[in-house]
Structure formats: structure tokens, C-alpha cells
Amino acid sequence: MNNRRFPLIIVLTVLLICLGAVPAGAGTGAVQIETGATNIKVGDIIAVSVMASNLTDLYSIDMGIMFDPAKLQAVDASGNPVTAVTPGNIFNGLPASVIWNTIDDTNGKIIYGCRILTSLEGGQDAGIDVTTPQTVATFYLKAVAEGSGVQVEFDPSFAAAEGQGILFSDSGTDNISSGSTNLNLNIAAGLPGGSTGGKESFPILSVPPSYFEQWSSSF
């Protein structure tokens, strides 16, 4: 065997060992905006969740989401206006603090941020590992106008320097790289006469008095 092959074999062996010691996808998180049905109609209210996974030493989250206010409105499950999202369980019950939580329904903007409390605040100084999908936050949207390809998306202007709409940070305040997936909706027309809580409304018929006079004279 040619002795010049030995250095190459050694290098390849070490490389394979190193690759095998690192779990696939380690260091790269995944986050997505999701809902049940994406084909909806005007008047429908959908529950939207922001789900994240594969995050190492997660300590804080900063997020900006945008939607088209001409086609969607932020509401609660009953259709009433709201000004904040519902925090998720991503920190697994650890003491945490919500930094900001606002919904600007006029401009279609959502801003949400939270972090684990430090040990001085009754929490801990280390982050947590998030492997399986966990909920960052949830909110409801009501479809108010028709449209195809209506986006609910992470706002890249939220963290313009990074060009991202959501930032995950570890306990050393370093960013955790992640890939994001937006939500795409198709909104069809509602029921004829408008939607009233899922029930169709009908116009009240106007009957002329002469009809009743003719009906009573027949007896």
C-alpha cells in the first residue's frame, strides 16, 4: 500500500468520528407559525401557534410577527379585540419574565419577548435545551376579507441587523441560529348574507296589508 495514503485515511477517520459525535441539526433551531386549517373563509377565527424546537441553552426569546390588517384581525376565541398574545410553555414551567407583549391590530404587528429569570430573581443562570416542538406563544386571528396567499410571517424588520423576525439567545447572550417557516392562508368568501357566528342570516320579508285583508275575507 502506498504510504502517502495513510495521512488521508487518518484525516477522514477523525472527520467521521467528529461528525458522528455531533447530533444532526445541533446548533440550528427550527421555528414556525402554524394553525390547523389554512383554507378558511371570511368570518372564521383560527388559533395560531408559534412553535420552536432544537434549541440549546435557550435563555431568551424576542419576536416580531406581521399580518395584513385588511384581511386579518387579532381577536380572542370569542372574536373580541385583544392587545396581547398568550405566552407558551417553552420554558417548561421555569420562572420567566415577559419583557414585552403587544398587538397592534391597526398595523398588523405583534411584538413579544420573554426570558428566564436569573438566580438573583429566583430563577437560574443557565438556559434549557428544547428538543421537541414547544409553544412560544399563541393567538387568534379572524378573517375579515378574501385573499389568497395571505401571510402571517416573522417580521424581518424586527431585528434588522440580523434580518430576522425572531431571535433566540443563550445564557451567554449569544444568538442561537434558527430557520423559520411562515404561515400561508387562503381566505374564501363567507356565507351569503354575512357570517353571524357560523349561522347564515336571512332578510325579513315585508308582507303588504292587502295580503292579510284578502286572506281574512276568504273565511
Instruction: Evaluate the radius of gyration.
Output: 27 Å
| Overall pLDDT score | 82
What is the CA–CA distance across the termini?
Answer: 118 Å
The CATH class of the domain at 35-176 is identified as Mainly Beta
Tally of extended strands? 17
- Give the amount of beta strand, in percent: 35-45%
Global shape: elongated
Structural class: mainly beta
CATH topology description of the domain at 35-176: Immunoglobulin-like
Helix content: 10-25%
What letter string, H or E per element, gives the SSE order? Answer: HEEEEEEEEEEEEEEEEEH
Ranges with pLDDT <50 over ≥5 residues?
5-26, 193-207
Q: Biggest sheet, in brief?
A: 9 strands, mixed
Any guess at the CATH architecture of the domain at 35-176?
A: Sandwich
What brief labels describe this structure?
single chain, 219 residues, mainly beta, Immunoglobulin-like, nine-stranded mixed β-sheet, six-stranded mixed β-sheet, 12% helix, 44% strand
Concise synopsis of the structure shown:
The protein is built from two helices and 17 strands.
Structural account:
This protein has a domain at 35-176: Immunoglobulin-like, CATH 2.60.40. It is built from two helices and 17 strands. It is 12% helix and 44% strand. The model is unreliable at 5-26 and 193-207 (pLDDT under 50). The protein has helices spanning 5-21, 209-217; strands at 29-34, 39-41, 45-53, 55-67, 72-75, 86-87, 96-104, 109-116, 128-130, 134-143, 147-154, 166-170, 175-176, 178-181, 183-188, 195-196, 199-200.
Give the topology, please:
Elements: H1 5-21, E1 29-34, E2 39-41, E3 45-53, E4 55-67, E5 72-75, E6 86-87, E7 96-104, E8 109-116, E9 128-130, E10 134-143, E11 147-154, E12 166-170, E13 175-176, E14 178-181, E15 183-188, E16 195-196, E17 199-200, H2 209-217
Parallel strand pairs: 1-14, 2-15
Antiparallel strand pairs: 1-3, 3-10, 4-8, 4-9, 4-11, 4-12, 5-10, 6-10, 7-8, 11-15, 12-13, 16-17
